[in-house]
Design brief:
Strand content: 5-15%
CATH superfamily of the largest domain: Ribonuclease H-like superfamily/Ribonuclease H
CATH class of the largest domain: Alpha Beta
Distance between the termini: 68 Å
Helix content: 40-55%
Number of strands: 14
CATH topology of the largest domain: Nucleotidyltransferase, domain 5
Strand order of the largest sheet: 3-2-1-4-5-6
Radius of gyration: 31 Å
Oligomer: single chain
Number of domains: 2
Structural class: alpha/beta
CATH architecture of the largest domain: 2-Layer Sandwich
Length: 525
Amino acid sequence: MLTPVVDKKIFLLDAFALIYRAYFAFAKNPRVNSKGQNTSAAFGFTNAMIDIIQKEKPTHMAVVFDAPGGATNRMEDFAAYKANREEMPEDIRSMLEPIKEIIKAFHIPMLMLEGYEADDIIGTLAKMAEKEGFQTYMMTPDKDFGQLVSENIFIYKPGRGKDPASIMGVKEVCEKFEVNDPLQVIDVLGMWGDAVDNIPGIPGVGEKTAKKFIQQYGSMEELFKNTADLKGKMKENVENFQEQGLLSKMLATIIVDVPVPFDPIDLRLDEPDKEAVLKIFTELEFRNLAKRITGEEIIVTAAGNNVDGQLDLFGQQSLVVNQEPMTTAELKTIATENPSYHLVNTPEERSKLLDLLLQQTQVCFDTETTSLDALHADLVGIAFSWKEREGYYVAIPKEFVEAKKIVDFFEPFFSSKTIEKIAHNIKYDIQVLNRYQTKVSEPTFDTMIAHYLIQPESKQSMDFLAEYYLRYQPVSIEALIGKKGKNQGNMGDLKPEEIVDYACEDADITFQLKQIFEPEIQNLI
């Protein structure tokens, strides 16, 4: 057996399997750019490809596609093969050319051959590479590739969410399929069948039974020689469907002698064409990926607006939901933004604040309380913001009578019919203020409800929306009162100086989110 050397590490990417996987990973919260394009498939595939290049550092790489049209040698033998497959979603189809442009920009070969599936091309290349001393990784979530695994050929299954990528070698494949040799995976799949590819298998033989038969007999053919050991309906099925079983085994067998060349020089991984990468990433609005690969910021405009979640000079903007995942280090924070937050703690300061509030047309307010139960929560303070990176926090004393006097003082603001009151989950704040006999008059705007109308399947918490739309990580409540549990503290135990930044930030961020959501809500009407 040849031993691979460090300068011979090849990754073979199963294109459509990875593209579909990427697309459905964003099914509940699709990535849509300012042009209305669903870029989920392109972004997920590209992100996975870049991760491999940067983390695994392959020396060689190829992306393998099924040929257009889909007719293969298997269909000649079994017309119903893959007949159950649904038509490709248009949101995937529309991203195929951009994905291919991205692959070209990275100088990665794309391979396909009419009459053969990507599985067959990958299988052939993997075996050829092994003979040339390569360590080969077949990047795919497809279980069928287990039959190809050897000492130097592995399945590389990309991670999902918080789950890391997994690598399956001979040991892992044999354990998963309960076989002694990866080649026996073909027999298991042949008996078991595959509803996705419309491989019929043997009726009545599922995954567990198929594994048991292979453990006992070693192959499908040996099972057929020993049907006398079986009983009842299982004996009848195995005897009556031998031809179908063998056909299914053939359909499940990945071809390893496809007429494709293996040229290590052509497959060697090269530096990407940064200009081409920048061009396609700009078109798709992959801002952070562009910075990650080229080191350059891209400026994306749509109908005269920037798409960073900020309003242009005319106050116009289309909502951008194509935000890219960021590391904590990349997110803005209170430390990086250096906002102007003020503690309001004296009668004179409260009077000045009220004068300023009554001059505004829209103000975000946020109550800080001792409980999440609005009907029994005591006020600790109220924060106000009507300008980005600026806020005011009014401290409220514990004694109810004194607290009510301060709340009453701001009644002209809360009862105003001309000032729009903004909050995130405003129902809670209204219920808290009701305890102090203060009513909140319309007009009002609830950013939580607004975002629900725009993206009903998304998370609606303020912290999530801040990261998603503003690229901002708010101060965690746990940083103030500790982690959830019996030992967690209470906002009422803190000094006003300890709360001011947290409270003002909540009002400030909610105010900024309102500016993003309101134009989109208008578009829905």
